[in-house]
Amino acid sequence: MTASALAELVDERSILVCCGPGGVGKTTTAAALALEGARRGRRSVVVTIDPARRLADALGLASLSDTPSLVEGDWPGELWALMLDTESTFDALVAKYAPGPEQAEAILNNRFYRNISGALSGTQEYMAMEKLHELHDEDRFDLVVVDTPPTRNALDFVDAPRRLTRLLDNRIFRLLMLPTRASIKAVNVAAQAFLRTVARVVGAEVVQDAVRFFQAFEGMEDGFRDRAQRVLRLLSDPGTAFVLVAAPRPDVVAEAEFFADKLGDAEIPVAALVVNRMHPRYGREWSGTAGERARTLAGTPLGPLYENLAELHQLADGEEEHVVDLVARLGPAPAVRVPVLPSDVHDLDGLAAVAAHLSGSSDDEPVAVG
Amino acid sequence: MDPRGFCRQSRLVIVAGKGGVGKTTVSAALARMAARTGLSALVVEVEGKSGLAAAFSAPDLEYDEQVLSPVSDDGMGEVRARTITPDEALVEYLEDHGLRRLSRRLVRTGAVDVVATSTPGIKDILVLGKVKQLERAGAADLIVLDAPAAGHAVRFLMSAQGLLDAVTVGPIRDQAADVLEMLTDPTRCQVVLVTLPEETPVNEVVETAYTLEDKVGLNLGPVVVNGLYPVLDGLDVDPEAAAEALGVSLRPGEAEALRAAAAFRARRQELQAAQVARLAQSLALPQLHLPALFDVEIGLAQVDRLADALAAGVEGLVAVQ
After folding, report:
1. CA B292, B295, B301: angle at the middle one, nearest 5?
2. A147-200, pLDDT tens digit by residue?
3. Could you tell me if B121 lies within 8 Å of chain A, comparing CB atoms?
4. Does A131 contact chain B (CB < 8 Å)?
5. What is the pTM of this model?
6. B43-64, pLDDT tens digit by residue?
7. Which of A93, A244, B86, B115 is deepest in the core (most CB within 10 A)?
8. ipTM of this predicted complex?
9. DSSP 8-state class, residue B237
10. B197-234 exposure pattern, b = at least 16 Cβ within 10 A, e = fewer
């Protein structure tokens, strides 16, 4: 019953953001949700972040680039996929807001600028949101599904636009850009002294790069700030749903709870919870007796069979125990438990199997837990 | 090789691997293994909350060290732990260099972001610089660094090389040079990679191993394969026939459950064996195998079971050098 609630999100929302700790299958979940969209007649696109090679393979694509590629398949809707390229997305933004090609060129060639995408924490997250905004604005897609980078800081993708504008608004560097009028000369001298000290630690050339960057960036802050505001508004739009992806391990659940809390602080509700990799529970009614039989029948041919059943029960019980509080905490949001798959997803059939579990249309009963 | 000898090969062991492979548990087990041979161990966390403290029923880790398990009368060494986050390391570095006022101003004005952006890797190098200081000072017989998750680990460990290329003079360059010297000296530092017996984690660990060895010149110790299901034999027995032969009565549906569970386990065992073999083929490093824990909570008892398994694996290693 709860699984069909996720199908409802796929049917009704225009943006799904898959977030959660690293190593829980976010990328596969995002791709499966987009596929489910296509199967339900929507024109959907999935934005993945640094996927393992096998996702492109699974989608039948030679490679993923930063422009959408059409995935061929037998479904009423459309499925497109692209891989986020943080640098080129950022470059496009710069080109868009620079007053002229020369200024854009000056920025794009600056070493400090080139460092922003690699070194400023949250830039990748921000560009994922930026890409989402761009795709949402195009009329080609009904559903945009975005995967988010594995991050310890749950809010990087909400904080990132603010972080970048804070960097761009930096007072010290703004002061350096002001024309040297007498009235502000004193401040400027102080700023210069400060930079000299910084230069003593990290070297003069890197400071010089930074100063040149801020000079070239002059006048573009407002455009960037407005854009960041629009991206943030889109995240809290009713058409956008956050899907928290987790796995039934204590460390992951703790991180997921932290995530959920942070999203709550930002007044972003979690619309659904997906718990991947749940172990199957065979014959729930024998949970209590399998262990006992494993002991009494040890040494007989039935011993290993009961020992295995008891261990799998213990595993499934433990996993459920980890997950149950998270499910309760997220309250009205539906929770979908996806069984551990025998192997990684290698093709569209594998992805379709995940999609079926997510949407509740899987008839693969023995492994459905919960 | 005996576990004490293994722990004495280098003072610093860096535990690295992709998110979710159990790096923190392996770090804890390594520290306990060292402690049981009478050595003192210090676990360093770089990413804040990790669950390490919880496994020892201790409060959350902080920049100041805390004892996770004390010295005991029967010869157990102490296990301590602490965090080193980039911001803390930066402030300490600047204060050590007589730049206390600068550090306050950097943080207050947000210029710390500008500095970090102008010098990629500076935060990583400050964390590693602090680790190097602990290593030089002999803060413990064994220092276990629980590295950031895979992609980040590579960037983290490559920061020294990157900075040497980018910064030509100054104290940060010296710091990077010192860190690189430590990282590439097999008598001071080795890297233990952790993975799971599954396709993607195996691919990633192979790639990480080559990158770290070729690009940074790090010395790789054994690879830890975590989460292996203990192999059960006799899973292909037919439950109904076996029950009849034994005169045991099965309840309705029980045979199906036993059969389905056995099929699941057999498939899992087969897949993990294939991945372990593939790892051995792709990476010429000895493997240490750790069992999957079916327990609900990870506590000291579970960490010690893994420490036992690690020690057993280490006993089987042949000493090189």
Report:
1. 95
2. 887 665 556 666 776 777 777 766 666 655 554 444 445 556 767 777 777 777
3. yes
4. no
5. 0.87
6. 999 876 667 898 899 998 999 9
7. A244
8. 0.85
9. S
10. bbbbbbbbbbbbbebbeeebebbbbbbbbbbbbeebee
